[in-house]
User: Fold this.
Amino acid sequence: MAKQAQPISPGKNFFAGGFGGVCLVFAGHPLDTIKVRLQTQTLPKPGESLMYTGTIDCFRKTLAKEGMKGLYKGMAAPIIGVTPMFAVCFFGFGLGKKLQQKTPDDILTYPQLFAAGMLSGVFTTAIMAPGERIKCLLQIQAASGEVKYAGPMDCMKQLYKQNGIRGIYKGTALTLMRDLPASGMYFMTYEWLKNLLTPAGKSHNELSVPSILFAGGMAGVFNWAVAIPPDVLKSRFQTAAEGKYPNGVRDVLRELIREEGMASLYKGFTAVMLRAFPANAACFLGFECAMKFLNWLAPSFE
Assistant:
C-alpha cells in the first residue's frame, strides 16, 4: 500500500510537473535524438551498410558531423510543449488519485495508482502528439541532410498547409496507445519505490536526493519497457511519407515484422534505456523540489 504523505493537490502537481518536465528535456534530449534516428533509419540497399550500427555509432557520427548541437536538434518543440505537457501529466495523476479517495487520508492501492497514471496519459496526448510529430521530423531531417523545415514553427506551418490539423496530429492514436499503459506503469513504479525507500516512521517528504533520483530513474526505465514497441510504430508512422500506410498502425506493424522481424519493435532500446534513467531522475527531482517550494509558499493551495 502507498503511504499518503500529505493531502493531494492537483494544482500544485500542475506547476511542479511543468518544472520537472523542463528538467527531463535538458537531461534526456541527446539520447532521444539518437533513439529516433535509430528507429527511423531504413534498411540499406544491396551492397550498402546501415547508416548507424547502434547507439554508440549513432552518437559518434552525430557528434562528428554536427557537433553537440546535433544532439539537441528538434529540442525547441519539446521544450515549448513539455512544460504544459508535464504540468498536465502530473495534474492528471493528482486528479486521478484525488478522484479515487473517499477522504483525504485514504491510502491508494497500487492498481488505483496505475489507473491514476493512465488518466494522466489521456490528459497529455492532446499536447504531446503534435510536439512528437514535429520533433521526429526535425530529428530525421538533420540525419538525412535534406533541409525541408527551417524549424518547429515552419514545420507546423507546412504540415498544416499540406493536410490541415490532421497533418499536425498524425499518430495521435499511437501516442495514446503508448502513453496509457506506460503512464500507469510510470507513476505506480515511482510511488512503489518511494514507499520501499522511505524508512519506517518517516514520510515521503524526508526522502534523500539519491533515493528520489533512484525512484524517478527506475520509474522511467519501467515506463519505457512498456512504451518502446508502440513508440517505434509511432515514430515510423509519424515520419512516413503521406499515404504510405493507408491502414495506419496495422500497415506499419506488418511491414516492420515482415522486413526486420519482431526485434525491430525494440529498435533504439539501448538509447531509450540510457536516457530513461537520468532524464526521469532529473524530472522527479525537479518535481519534488518544486512541490516542497510550493508547499512552503502556499500550504493551503489546492
Notes: The longest helix spans residues 110-144.
